[in-house]
Amino acid sequence: MTDTAAQIPEPRADAPDRWALPDLAARALGGAVLAANDESFAEKEHLIQPYPVVHAAHTFGAKGQVYDGWETRRRRTDGHDWAIVRLGVPGVISAVAVDTAYFTGNYPPRVSVDACRADGHPAVADLLRADWRTIVPVSDAKGDTRNEYDVDDPHRYTHVRLNLHPDGGVARLRVHGTPVPDPAGFADLPLDLAALANGAAVTGASNAFYSNPTGAIMPGLPASQADGWETARRRTPGHEWLDVRLAGRGVIRVAELDTTHLKHNAPGWASLDARDGAESFPLLERTPLQPDTPHRFVLTGDRPATSVRLNIFPDGGMARLRLYGRLTPEALRELETRFRA
């Protein structure tokens, strides 16, 4: 057993800070703005852009001041404006942020958010007829502000609808929550037990100076050095680590440690320790890593695990962590129960 295996903490029993939960509407997870009743001044797709809002004053196009956001015309009739967003990963929503950055005289004075569950691949016409539930009631909003709203709703949702009362502009929409995938899509096949899209989560990291550790379990190939988890340079003895709660209890057979784009800041070595309840055991002994390289390790153990700690020596970055295996029958049944709730 490695010297860190016994130190892996039990996953937190209480709910994590809601603003630390992943953005279920993120474009990187497959989120999309499907429809809006109006986008006369600025396009609806800006709502879920991943980068910070940018703005240059006195830049006018054919439709007026150019905004990095969604902006509707001045409403002269009753009603309100709306945009429908498909969540990249369906789940339980805990908080919503409506960011009106740089919208100062044209922001909506009030907003609300509805959500619906429409599994499969519904068309916009289907969504317009869906059973929408209010998760954020009509609430005051301020201009040039990240307006934050808590959500207390245990249901699983696939889409949200942002409502502007009566009109105006919003730069970004963030929908923080806990992924709840459809286990039927696993089809009893091996899957990445560390994937956020499958219900895994980062529960802790020793250092997250340069990037959000959740990047290590995002889908797709890393796009740049910033797309993943990277620590500061360590100036004291020891090493850095990342804890991941698996999508469910399962047996891991293949581990992928990807240092793509990390050319001069990859770890020198890495190891993996697993936890199953109160018991810890080594999954991958300390192993040398190469810069800018996807590493694939076939594991021989057959012990199920509920969480894994990635240790990197002494510091550096990890673009992606993949842990392929199978859920136990009990874990699969638990996911099915949660999906149906």
TrEMBL record:
Keywords: Hydrolase, Purine metabolism. It comes from the Bacteria. It catalyses: allantoate + H2O = (S)-ureidoglycolate + urea. InterPro entries: Allantoicase, Allantoicase_dom, Galactose-bd-like_sf. The keyword Hydrolase applies. Pathway: Nitrogen metabolism; (S)-allantoin degradation; (S)-ureidoglycolate from allantoate (aminidohydrolase route): step 1/1. Its EC number is 3.5.3.4. Coiled coil: none annotated. Residues 30-179, 199-327 form the Allantoicase domain. The keyword tRNA processing does not apply. Gene3D superfamilies: Galactose-binding domain-like (2.60.120.260). It is an enzyme of class 3 (hydrolase). GO terms for molecular function: allantoicase activity. GO terms for biological process: allantoin catabolic process; purine nucleobase metabolic process. Belongs to the allantoicase family. This is Probable allantoicase. It comes from Glycomyces terrestris.
